[in-house]
Amino acid sequence: MDFLQTLVSIFMQYGYFAVFGILILCGFGLPVPEDISLTAGGVISGLGYANVHIMFLVGMAGVLLGDCFVFWLGSYYGEKALTLPVLRTVLHPERFDKVREQFKKYGRWVVFFGRFMPGLRMPIFFTAGTSKQITFLRFLFTDGFAALISVPIWVYLGYYGAHNFDELMGWVRNGQTIILGLVGLAITVVLFYWWRRKHREARGQK
């Protein structure tokens, strides 16, 4: 709670620019939880210091810009970028190799689920760039679609819980699990309808 209150105090003074800047730095590997930053942006909106809908757009822009920079870094410099101090501390060779193996197996699905994995987002997005298996536009679409699920949840969660920090922190602690559950449910529904359509087409061909 102390960290959330610290971010809220900073964001109350500097508004959208502070939220935008912190989120970009989160994409670069800054050890600040992106989810808490988005929630803090929602909190200052709930307290009347910002418009929550604009805050959602600022959150989306900051998140995507940071992610795209990391992807570009991997795409342009490749594994040479691992020697940079900003990457060396969060993306050591062992982690890079593990992420690369997963990317070879599952492709852009790793990018999609990476958005919901704090601590792994940056390594996954960097590896996506180095892999050359996904274009920038496809990366942007996949990451953007995932962000459309997570970003509004955190921002509006902060907005509606702005006047009850204790309850808000309870929701924040369980938020990642809830988001992954919703994503899993959505994927299950999509797969079910896809399977049923294929089943009907197969029966129609008989």
Automatic annotation (TrEMBL):
Its placement in the membrane is given as: Multi-pass membrane protein
Under the heading InterPro entries, the entry gives:
DedA-like, VTT_dom
| Keywords (A to Z) from UniProt | Cell membrane, Membrane, Transmembrane, Transmembrane helix
Q: Name one Pfam family in it.
A: VTT_dom
Q: Which segments cross the bilayer?
A: 7-30, 50-73, 136-157, 177-195
Top-level lineage group:
Bacteria
> Localized where?
Cell membrane
Signal sequence extent: none
The record places domain VTT at: 32-159
An example GO CC term for this entry is:
plasma membrane
Family recorded in the similarity comment: Belongs to the DedA family.
The entry's protein name is: SNARE-like domain protein
